[in-house]
Design a protein that fits this description.
Number of helices: 8
Radius of gyration: 28 Å
CATH class of the largest domain: Alpha Beta
Helix content: 40-55%
Distance between the termini: 91 Å
Strand order of the largest sheet: 1-2-3-4
Length: 195
């Protein structure tokens, strides 16, 4: 009876064995490719071994020299990154931190490249008794900036930035001042610098 079954379904059995062999080869190759990516730090070590995007690699500090195609792809990912904190929200948090004397929270509103210099500046201002002046200047800037005006976002290698200009007085003369914000890798706008 078993021999009759084998004879009757021999082509079906052969086809099933071929499909199974192809499936095993496919899964084995897929697994080898994923393990290669995991070993190089380019994929999540947990199943299903998700390959990291350029943005995720940048967040992990694993993004180095990019070719033109990858650079363009990375810049597009940055540009399309949803905003978690707007420039105005970041600046409001900065001012609130200044008002309560929380230098670390204020520094946390700065772009990573600017944090050390801002910490030194704020510590110096506090030691020199200019803390109230810093708060007043910051509040004046917040009130003079037209936050609702359409701002042009410029993208540079690995950075998206927006510039807010406002009029201010320097040494008793009207002049142009501004704040440049950079969008970080998580979608938060951070203060890059004041001018």
């Amino acid at each position: 009876m078993f021999l009759r079954f084998l004879k009757k379904h021999k082509y079906t059995i052969i086809l099933a064995v071929i499909v199974l062999a192809v499936l095993i080869i496919f899964v084995q190759n897929w697994y080898k490719q994923k393990m290669n990516l995991v070993e190089r730090g380019l994929a999540d070590p947990k199943f299903p071994y998700h390959q990291y995007t350029l943005l995720e690699l940048a967040r992990q500090g694993k993004l180095f020299d990019l070719n033109e195609q990858d650079r363009a792809k990375f810049e597009q990912e940055l540009k399309n990154l949803p905003t978690r904190a707007t420039p105005q929200e970041t600046f409001d948090i900065y001012i609130q931190a200044l008002k309560v004397g929380d230098i670390e929270r204020a520094v946390g509103c700065m772009a990573e490249d600017s944090q050390t210099s801002e910490r030194e500046f704020l510590n110096g201002a506090k030691e020199e008794g200019r803390w109230k002046e810093i708060i007043e200047i910051s509040e004046e800037a917040r009130n003079r900036i037209s936050w609702s005006a359409k701002k042009i976002e410029d993208s540079f290698v690995g950075t998206t930035e927006v510039n807010y200009n406002y009029s201010c007085v320097s040494i008793d003369k009207p002049t142009g001042c501004g704040i440049i914000f950079n969008k970080d890798l998580y979608g938060d706008w951070k203060i890059y610098r004041f001018y």
